Amino acid sequence: MAWSDILGQERVIELLKTHLQDERVAHAYLFAGPDGVGKRRLAFEMAKALNCTGAGNRPCDACTVCRQIARGTHPDVHSVVAGGASDQIKIDMIRHVIGRVALRPYSAAFQVAILEGAERLTEEAANSLLKVLEEPSAHTRFILTTAQFSACLPTIVSRCQLIRCRPLPADVVKQILITQKGCDEPTATAIASLSGGSASEALALADRWSTYDQWVSLLGSDAPPAWFERPLPESREGVAQLLDGMMRWLRDLAVTATSETAYIAHAGHAVALRRQVRGMDLDRCLDTVFELVALRDSLEQFVSPRLVAAVAREKWLNLIGK
Ligand SMILES: [Zn+2]
Protein backbone atom coordinates (compact mmCIF):
# COMPACT_ATOMS: atom_id res chain seq x y z
CA MET A 1 0.00 0.00 0.00
CA ALA A 2 1.11 3.55 -0.66
CA TRP A 3 -0.34 7.04 -0.09
CA SER A 4 -1.83 6.82 -3.58
CA ASP A 5 -3.81 3.68 -2.60
CA ILE A 6 -5.79 5.70 -0.05
CA LEU A 7 -8.60 7.12 -2.13
CA GLY A 8 -10.56 10.28 -1.42
CA GLN A 9 -8.24 11.72 1.28
CA GLU A 10 -5.88 13.67 -0.98
CA ARG A 11 -6.16 16.85 1.10
CA VAL A 12 -5.16 15.05 4.30
CA ILE A 13 -2.32 13.22 2.55
CA GLU A 14 -0.91 16.49 1.18
CA LEU A 15 -1.02 17.99 4.66
CA LEU A 16 0.77 15.02 6.25
CA LYS A 17 3.38 15.02 3.49
CA THR A 18 4.04 18.70 4.16
CA HIS A 19 4.51 17.97 7.87
CA LEU A 20 7.00 15.22 7.00
CA GLN A 21 8.93 17.35 4.49
CA ASP A 22 9.11 20.33 6.83
CA GLU A 23 9.93 18.10 9.81
CA ARG A 24 6.90 19.52 11.62
CA VAL A 25 5.30 16.20 12.49
CA ALA A 26 3.11 16.61 15.57
CA HIS A 27 3.73 14.50 18.66
CA ALA A 28 0.14 13.37 18.54
CA TYR A 29 -2.48 13.41 15.80
CA LEU A 30 -6.20 12.77 16.04
CA PHE A 31 -7.69 11.58 12.75
CA ALA A 32 -11.43 12.24 13.01
CA GLY A 33 -14.02 11.18 10.46
CA PRO A 34 -16.72 8.61 9.75
CA ASP A 35 -16.02 4.88 9.67
CA GLY A 36 -14.67 3.54 6.41
CA VAL A 37 -12.95 6.67 5.07
CA GLY A 38 -9.34 5.50 5.48
CA LYS A 39 -8.30 6.76 8.96
CA ARG A 40 -6.60 3.47 9.91
CA ARG A 41 -4.77 3.26 6.60
CA LEU A 42 -3.63 6.88 6.93
CA ALA A 43 -2.30 6.14 10.44
CA PHE A 44 -0.25 3.13 9.31
CA GLU A 45 0.98 4.98 6.22
CA MET A 46 2.14 7.81 8.46
CA ALA A 47 3.95 5.29 10.71
CA LYS A 48 5.71 3.96 7.62
CA ALA A 49 6.58 7.44 6.32
CA LEU A 50 8.07 8.40 9.71
CA ASN A 51 10.32 5.36 9.80
CA CYS A 52 10.99 4.46 6.16
CA THR A 53 14.67 3.93 5.35
CA GLY A 54 14.21 4.14 1.55
CA ALA A 55 16.14 6.74 -0.41
CA GLY A 56 13.32 8.39 -2.41
CA ASN A 57 9.74 9.26 -1.53
CA ARG A 58 8.63 8.15 1.91
CA PRO A 59 7.20 5.60 2.46
CA CYS A 60 8.94 3.54 -0.20
CA ASP A 61 6.94 0.37 0.51
CA ALA A 62 10.05 -1.67 -0.27
CA CYS A 63 12.43 -1.29 2.69
CA THR A 64 12.34 -3.76 5.59
CA VAL A 65 10.70 -1.21 7.88
CA CYS A 66 7.87 -0.44 5.45
CA ARG A 67 7.23 -4.13 4.84
CA GLN A 68 7.27 -5.00 8.55
CA ILE A 69 4.83 -2.20 9.37
CA ALA A 70 2.53 -3.28 6.53
CA ARG A 71 2.54 -6.82 7.94
CA GLY A 72 1.93 -5.51 11.48
CA THR A 73 5.17 -7.05 12.76
CA HIS A 74 7.39 -4.02 13.34
CA PRO A 75 8.51 -3.93 17.00
CA ASP A 76 8.30 -0.11 17.20
CA VAL A 77 4.76 0.31 15.85
CA HIS A 78 2.03 -0.51 18.35
CA SER A 79 -1.65 -0.80 17.62
CA VAL A 80 -4.40 -0.50 20.23
CA VAL A 81 -8.01 -1.13 19.25
CA ALA A 82 -11.07 -0.81 21.49
CA GLY A 83 -12.32 -4.28 22.30
CA GLY A 84 -13.73 -6.73 24.81
CA ALA A 85 -17.32 -6.95 25.98
CA SER A 86 -17.34 -3.25 26.89
CA ASP A 87 -15.74 -2.24 23.57
CA GLN A 88 -13.42 0.19 25.37
CA ILE A 89 -9.74 1.05 25.53
CA LYS A 90 -8.92 0.28 29.13
CA ILE A 91 -6.10 1.46 31.35
CA ASP A 92 -4.13 -1.79 31.18
CA MET A 93 -4.04 -1.50 27.38
CA ILE A 94 -2.76 2.07 27.63
CA ARG A 95 -0.22 1.20 30.36
CA HIS A 96 1.10 -1.60 28.18
CA VAL A 97 1.60 0.66 25.15
CA ILE A 98 3.09 3.48 27.27
CA GLY A 99 5.59 0.98 28.67
CA ARG A 100 6.58 0.01 25.15
CA VAL A 101 6.96 3.52 23.73
CA ALA A 102 8.97 4.60 26.77
CA LEU A 103 11.81 2.41 25.49
CA ARG A 104 14.16 3.63 22.81
CA PRO A 105 13.07 2.46 19.37
CA TYR A 106 14.32 -1.03 18.59
CA SER A 107 15.18 -0.40 14.95
CA ALA A 108 13.09 2.53 13.70
CA ALA A 109 13.52 6.28 14.16
CA PHE A 110 10.25 6.61 16.12
CA GLN A 111 8.09 4.49 18.37
CA VAL A 112 4.57 4.95 16.97
CA ALA A 113 1.43 4.13 18.94
CA ILE A 114 -1.78 3.92 16.91
CA LEU A 115 -4.95 4.08 19.05
CA GLU A 116 -8.13 3.30 17.15
CA GLY A 117 -11.39 4.49 18.69
CA ALA A 118 -10.20 7.40 20.87
CA GLU A 119 -13.81 8.02 21.98
CA ARG A 120 -13.70 4.64 23.69
CA LEU A 121 -10.87 5.45 26.11
CA THR A 122 -12.07 4.95 29.66
CA GLU A 123 -11.53 7.96 31.91
CA GLU A 124 -8.70 6.16 33.72
CA ALA A 125 -7.05 5.20 30.41
CA ALA A 126 -7.42 8.76 29.11
CA ASN A 127 -5.82 10.21 32.26
CA SER A 128 -2.92 7.82 31.95
CA LEU A 129 -2.48 8.74 28.27
CA LEU A 130 -2.71 12.47 29.03
CA LYS A 131 0.45 12.38 31.14
CA VAL A 132 2.42 11.05 28.18
CA LEU A 133 0.80 13.45 25.72
CA GLU A 134 1.71 16.36 28.00
CA GLU A 135 5.37 15.37 28.16
CA PRO A 136 6.08 13.64 24.87
CA SER A 137 9.45 12.05 24.32
CA ALA A 138 11.39 13.00 21.19
CA HIS A 139 11.29 9.48 19.76
CA THR A 140 7.56 8.82 20.22
CA ARG A 141 4.55 9.68 18.07
CA PHE A 142 0.89 8.99 18.85
CA ILE A 143 -1.82 8.66 16.21
CA LEU A 144 -5.38 8.45 17.52
CA THR A 145 -8.43 7.86 15.35
CA THR A 146 -12.12 8.41 16.05
CA ALA A 147 -15.42 8.11 14.25
CA GLN A 148 -17.16 10.01 17.07
CA PHE A 149 -15.23 13.19 17.56
CA SER A 150 -17.87 14.76 19.81
CA ALA A 151 -17.53 11.83 22.24
CA CYS A 152 -13.75 12.32 22.67
CA LEU A 153 -12.54 13.86 25.91
CA PRO A 154 -11.63 17.56 25.33
CA THR A 155 -8.42 17.12 27.34
CA ILE A 156 -7.23 14.46 24.88
CA VAL A 157 -8.37 16.46 21.83
CA SER A 158 -6.56 19.58 23.02
CA ARG A 159 -3.21 17.75 23.09
CA CYS A 160 -3.50 16.35 19.57
CA GLN A 161 -3.28 17.95 16.17
CA LEU A 162 -6.76 17.42 14.75
CA ILE A 163 -6.98 16.12 11.18
CA ARG A 164 -10.50 15.91 9.74
CA CYS A 165 -11.06 13.02 7.34
CA ARG A 166 -14.12 13.77 5.23
CA PRO A 167 -16.62 11.26 3.83
CA LEU A 168 -15.44 9.86 0.50
CA PRO A 169 -16.89 11.37 -2.69
CA ALA A 170 -19.57 9.14 -4.29
CA ASP A 171 -17.38 8.60 -7.36
CA VAL A 172 -14.57 7.19 -5.21
CA VAL A 173 -16.96 4.82 -3.37
CA LYS A 174 -18.41 3.76 -6.72
CA GLN A 175 -14.96 2.93 -8.04
CA ILE A 176 -14.13 0.89 -4.93
CA LEU A 177 -17.37 -1.11 -5.38
CA ILE A 178 -16.66 -1.79 -9.04
CA THR A 179 -13.04 -2.80 -8.39
CA GLN A 180 -13.44 -4.76 -5.16
CA LYS A 181 -16.93 -6.25 -5.51
CA GLY A 182 -17.36 -6.38 -9.26
CA CYS A 183 -20.60 -4.33 -8.98
CA ASP A 184 -22.18 -3.15 -12.24
CA GLU A 185 -22.39 0.61 -12.76
CA PRO A 186 -26.07 1.17 -11.73
CA THR A 187 -25.70 -0.97 -8.59
CA ALA A 188 -22.44 0.76 -7.65
CA THR A 189 -24.13 4.16 -8.12
CA ALA A 190 -27.11 3.13 -5.98
CA ILE A 191 -24.96 1.72 -3.17
CA ALA A 192 -22.54 4.68 -3.23
CA SER A 193 -25.39 7.14 -2.73
CA LEU A 194 -26.56 5.17 0.34
CA SER A 195 -23.12 4.74 1.87
CA GLY A 196 -22.72 8.20 3.36
CA GLY A 197 -19.21 8.32 1.89
CA SER A 198 -18.01 5.27 3.83
CA ALA A 199 -16.20 2.55 1.91
CA SER A 200 -16.74 -0.05 4.66
CA GLU A 201 -20.48 0.74 4.77
CA ALA A 202 -20.68 0.48 0.98
CA LEU A 203 -18.79 -2.84 0.85
CA ALA A 204 -21.00 -4.32 3.58
CA LEU A 205 -24.13 -3.11 1.76
CA ALA A 206 -22.87 -4.66 -1.49
CA ASP A 207 -22.64 -8.06 0.25
CA ARG A 208 -26.33 -7.97 1.14
CA TRP A 209 -27.59 -5.83 -1.69
CA SER A 210 -30.23 -8.16 -3.10
CA THR A 211 -31.97 -8.49 0.32
CA TYR A 212 -31.67 -4.77 0.97
CA ASP A 213 -33.15 -3.93 -2.41
CA GLN A 214 -36.14 -6.19 -1.75
CA TRP A 215 -36.79 -4.51 1.59
CA VAL A 216 -36.59 -1.11 -0.02
CA SER A 217 -39.20 -2.08 -2.60
CA LEU A 218 -41.44 -3.08 0.30
CA LEU A 219 -40.83 0.23 2.10
CA GLY A 220 -42.01 2.04 -1.01
CA SER A 221 -45.11 -0.12 -1.28
CA ASP A 222 -48.43 0.97 0.19
CA ALA A 223 -49.83 -2.55 0.22
CA PRO A 224 -49.84 -3.94 3.78
CA PRO A 225 -50.41 -7.60 2.75
CA ALA A 226 -46.95 -7.60 1.20
CA TRP A 227 -45.54 -6.92 4.68
CA PHE A 228 -47.15 -10.10 6.00
CA GLU A 229 -46.29 -12.24 3.01
CA ARG A 230 -42.60 -11.64 3.44
CA PRO A 231 -41.00 -13.28 6.48
CA LEU A 232 -39.27 -10.84 8.80
CA PRO A 233 -35.54 -11.28 9.30
CA GLU A 234 -34.59 -13.31 12.37
CA SER A 235 -30.91 -12.58 12.80
CA ARG A 236 -29.62 -9.50 14.62
CA GLU A 237 -27.76 -8.45 11.48
CA GLY A 238 -30.81 -8.91 9.26
CA VAL A 239 -33.03 -6.86 11.58
CA ALA A 240 -30.37 -4.14 11.86
CA GLN A 241 -30.32 -3.98 8.07
CA LEU A 242 -34.11 -3.60 7.95
CA LEU A 243 -34.04 -0.81 10.57
CA ASP A 244 -31.22 1.00 8.75
CA GLY A 245 -33.20 0.73 5.51
CA MET A 246 -36.29 2.18 7.21
CA MET A 247 -34.31 5.10 8.61
CA ARG A 248 -32.67 5.85 5.28
CA TRP A 249 -36.08 5.70 3.61
CA LEU A 250 -37.58 8.14 6.15
CA ARG A 251 -34.68 10.50 5.54
CA ASP A 252 -35.46 10.31 1.84
CA LEU A 253 -39.15 11.02 2.49
CA ALA A 254 -38.13 14.18 4.36
CA VAL A 255 -35.80 15.18 1.51
CA THR A 256 -38.57 14.50 -1.04
CA ALA A 257 -40.92 16.76 0.93
CA THR A 258 -38.45 19.63 0.50
CA SER A 259 -38.23 18.96 -3.27
CA GLU A 260 -34.41 18.82 -3.02
CA THR A 261 -34.47 15.65 -5.08
CA ALA A 262 -30.75 15.77 -5.87
CA TYR A 263 -30.12 14.65 -2.28
CA ILE A 264 -32.35 11.54 -2.42
CA ALA A 265 -30.23 8.50 -1.56
CA HIS A 266 -32.68 5.92 -3.00
CA ALA A 267 -32.64 7.77 -6.32
CA GLY A 268 -34.11 4.81 -8.20
CA HIS A 269 -37.26 4.99 -6.04
CA ALA A 270 -38.11 8.66 -6.52
CA VAL A 271 -41.62 7.90 -7.88
CA ALA A 272 -42.54 5.74 -4.86
CA LEU A 273 -41.12 8.38 -2.49
CA ARG A 274 -43.17 11.15 -4.12
CA ARG A 275 -46.33 9.05 -3.97
CA GLN A 276 -45.78 8.10 -0.34
CA VAL A 277 -44.89 11.57 0.89
CA ARG A 278 -48.24 12.97 -0.26
CA GLY A 279 -50.46 13.20 2.77
CA MET A 280 -47.78 11.91 5.11
CA ASP A 281 -47.49 13.63 8.47
CA LEU A 282 -43.81 14.62 8.63
CA ASP A 283 -43.94 15.07 12.41
CA ARG A 284 -44.99 11.45 12.73
CA CYS A 285 -42.22 10.59 10.31
CA LEU A 286 -39.73 12.18 12.71
CA ASP A 287 -41.31 10.43 15.73
CA THR A 288 -40.91 7.14 13.87
CA VAL A 289 -37.22 7.87 13.29
CA PHE A 290 -36.72 8.28 17.06
CA GLU A 291 -38.65 5.07 17.69
CA LEU A 292 -36.52 3.20 15.18
CA VAL A 293 -33.32 4.58 16.72
CA ALA A 294 -34.52 3.26 20.11
CA LEU A 295 -35.29 -0.11 18.53
CA ARG A 296 -31.84 -0.17 16.94
CA ASP A 297 -30.32 0.48 20.38
CA SER A 298 -32.43 -2.26 21.95
CA LEU A 299 -31.04 -4.65 19.36
CA GLU A 300 -27.58 -3.96 20.81
CA GLN A 301 -28.99 -4.71 24.28
CA PHE A 302 -29.75 -8.30 23.30
CA VAL A 303 -33.53 -7.91 22.97
CA SER A 304 -34.97 -10.64 20.72
CA PRO A 305 -34.34 -9.64 17.07
CA ARG A 306 -37.69 -11.19 16.05
CA LEU A 307 -39.53 -9.02 18.54
CA VAL A 308 -37.68 -5.90 17.36
CA ALA A 309 -38.53 -6.69 13.73
CA ALA A 310 -42.21 -7.23 14.54
CA VAL A 311 -42.43 -3.94 16.47
CA ALA A 312 -40.65 -2.10 13.64
CA ARG A 313 -43.15 -3.48 11.10
CA GLU A 314 -46.03 -2.40 13.34
CA LYS A 315 -44.64 1.14 13.60
CA TRP A 316 -44.09 1.28 9.85
CA LEU A 317 -47.66 0.19 9.04
CA ASN A 318 -48.97 2.75 11.54
CA LEU A 319 -46.92 5.46 9.87
CA ILE A 320 -48.16 4.72 6.37
CA GLY A 321 -51.69 4.60 7.83
CA LYS A 322 -52.40 0.91 7.21
ZN1 LIG B 1 10.36 2.28 3.20
What does this structure look like?
- The protein is an alpha/beta fold.
- It has 2 domains: 3-164, Rossmann fold; 208-319.
- Helices cover 54% and strands 8% of the residues.
- A 5-stranded parallel sheet has the order 2-3-4-1-5, with helices on both faces.
- The model has no long low-confidence stretch (mean pLDDT 92).
- It binds zinc ion.
Question: What keywords describe this structure?
Answer:
322 residues; binds zinc ion; Rossmann fold; alpha/beta
- Show unreliable segments: none
For CATH, the homologous superfamily of the largest domain is named as P-loop containing nucleotide triphosphate hydrolases
What is the CATH architecture assignment of the largest domain?
3-Layer(aba) Sandwich
Q: What small ligands are held by the chains? A: zinc ion
Q: What's the number of extended β-strand segments?
A: 5
CATH C-level name of the largest domain: Alpha Beta
Shape: elongated
Q: Could you please say which CATH topology of the largest domain applies here?
A: Rossmann fold
